[in-house]
Amino acid sequence: MSTPEAQRAINRGASVIIPCLLVGTVGVATYVVVVRLGVDYLLRPSSDLQLTAAYPVNPRRGTAIAIIVVYCILLALMTLPYLRTFQVIQTNPGYIRRGPHAQRDQPPAAQAPKSRPSSAPVPRPPSKNALPNPTPAAAAAATAPPPRPRPQSHLRRHRRPAPGLERFYAKDAFVCDMSGLPIFCPKCDNWKRDRTHHCSEVGRCVRRMDHFCPWIGGIVSETNLKFFLQFVVYAALYTLFMLVVLAVFVAEQVRIGLGRDAWLIGILVCSATFFFFAAGMSGSVIQMSLRNYTTVENLFKGNKTYFIAVYTGPQTPQAAMERPLYPTVTYPLRPTPGADIRQFAILQTKPGENPWDLGALQNWRELMGYSWLEWLLPIKYSPFCKHGARYEYPFGPVLDRMRREAGLSSR
Ligand SMILES: [Zn+2]
């Protein structure tokens, strides 16, 4: 078994085992904090404790109730987004529909190679409007390494493009390859919407895929990233609370001669471990969310460039005669009489630019919602799940600048 396939098998197995372990651990933690510490030690100390301890163990009703109430609130806050994430994974994980030639049953080794061999020719743009003598900007785009040869190989194989291109060229801008076609996934046999990534573990293209998470038993994507973030933040608070409370009372029990309670110490160690994991994950997701990166995009953000097809707007006869500053593609690829012709400029971002960065606050709102209640509770989907008519996801100032530089906008 190849290493990537072995890793995927491990991830799939872990996605079943880890949620069960989590539920079991939380059950034991609840017993320890509520029953063993809250009731048996603080609320109604048993006569055995009184006999064993070197000092009197008095009932502390207020402390017990406060600990139990805060524990239950944090447990509920952590559990709700966890269940919501789990429910979304089962019902609406954000998969892209497969095409008729999708590679459903083939093992990974038999699937199409990811990249073209180095001796293969560089694909030619299908647009008849592409410039024969490109400008420096276009030349730079043309000399850049061909990022995605899949659409062209797909076109050659099937002679005509897969259906569904109209969903892209009906918009004002979309991510494309250097020829102006949307990115194509040969495994799913379909076009990839902006920010879509093919997930090997589930064998599907996933909208705004973030990562495959064994802790929640599935894929984190546009539909559940918000709930996942709420879960890890509340999990950090929940484990921190237990860490502090248990550390205090373990120390107290040792001090008054009761010795070390293995139950309390076991959950204390688990709390410390999960706290550092959950806090680290919370910090990482929040940081990426404020910059509008998914985990996948964050991995390649350093030198990543995007080709973006940008609608040039209605063309006047005079403008159509002028040579544009950019390569273009015109849709439909095979126009029929009376078809609505839409021309797109093929523009390229600078290395490391994120065209979807709207600024930290707006990035946060697009993920978490526009009210405090949405930030705190797993009620609504993220606003960016409502894909607009003009864009799959809102573009930021980077696209405005590219439009200006290409002469497509004066703003
Ligand atoms: Zn795919």
TrEMBL record:
Keywords, A to Z, come to: Acyltransferase, Transferase
Q: What EC number(s) is this enzyme filed under?
A: 2.3.1.225
State whether keyword Acyltransferase applies: yes
EC category: transferase
Name the domain of life: Eukaryota
**Record's protein name:** Palmitoyltransferase pfa5
**Annotated source species:** Coniosporium tulheliwenetii
